[in-house]
Amino acid sequence: MNNNIQQLYNIASKEERIIIGLMSGTSLDGLDIALCKFSGSGFETHIELLQFETVPYSHQFKQAIQSVFSKKQVDLEKLCLLNSWIAEQHAGMINSFLSTHNINNNDVDIIASHGQTIYHAPKSLHQQSVFGNGTLQIGDGDHLAVKTGIITISDFRQKHIAAGGEGAPLAMYGDYLLFSNKAETRIMLNIGGIANFTFLPTNSDADKIFSTDTGPGNTLMDAYVQKHFEDKFYDEDSLIAKLGTVNMALLNALLNNNFFDKPFPKTTGPELFNLAYVTAAQTKAGVTSINHYDMMATLNMFTATTIANAIKHAIGNEQFVLYASGGGKHNVLLMQNIHQQLSNCTIKDINELGINPDAKEAILFAILANETICGGKVNYGSHMPSVNMGKISFPC
Question: Which domains are assigned to the chain?
Fold first, then answer.
């Protein structure tokens, strides 16, 4: 037997596994690194978060990604070079993280890497009859494995598409295993660049559970701040939006898109919700002049309204508990705007469920890797493919 296959078999046979989950989202703020200890799999999964850190991206790194991010036309040579370069940068961050915490690379069993999303193209968006759903994440797993010396599982979204999904959102897999509860109906809301939630009814019926994107999370607010406020990357503490007033005409124009009428589950990305979308809405609404503060207040309300409308469509009048995670959780005004539109909602901190809200997405990919190695027996219902995901890369 090949030594790498033997090592993988030994890892799968262990009572406990150490897995690093990595997440780099469309917000491009940094690399989330979650060092987790696992035992069990499926509904018997037990996770202990040992260490967590978000390594901020440098200005150079952000610029490099933004040069190819969500663009239909890019420099193909640069995209090719970035695939390995991003993996090498991530590997350096992992090695530094482990060194800082006095952890030997040999003590880590698996790296689970989401990669960096460059383009998301569900058929509902590209509308080309000859092609199906597509998505592209770069940051090659082989380079990660070689540079860290750790077996790496990556490129999770492709199996999801191959099995009939859209490649996103994948949160349902972890949410279903960890957070299903017969005592309360739950909405597990994640607000990253794009917002999504998982609906977990009290009966835990797999065919009733689903995960869906709702529309923009932070992406429009972040893009607007980066364009109009020097040296700011996002609206920290909602300080900009709090100074503005919502422009209702513009808000209604922003809400006027057939994406919001599509059935669940559905996915989207900055390919649709970008500053060109905002400009087009201004033209529709006849709002040619608006100050930056009113714009940010309106974009904040737009995100909140699309989230609230989607949840109301899923829940109806049923009482439920909302657990929020992702960067948008820290946007105080956004969370207030969401709560005001959901009268049947109780908001709780996901820390009450034993999960660091900032680490949740990175932990999710560690869960997916754990299932790929030693799980694979869970039925996820009719809304999502019941598959194990990820490509396995061995060190040299």
Answer: 3-167+359-393 (3.30.420.40), 171-353 (3.30.420.40)
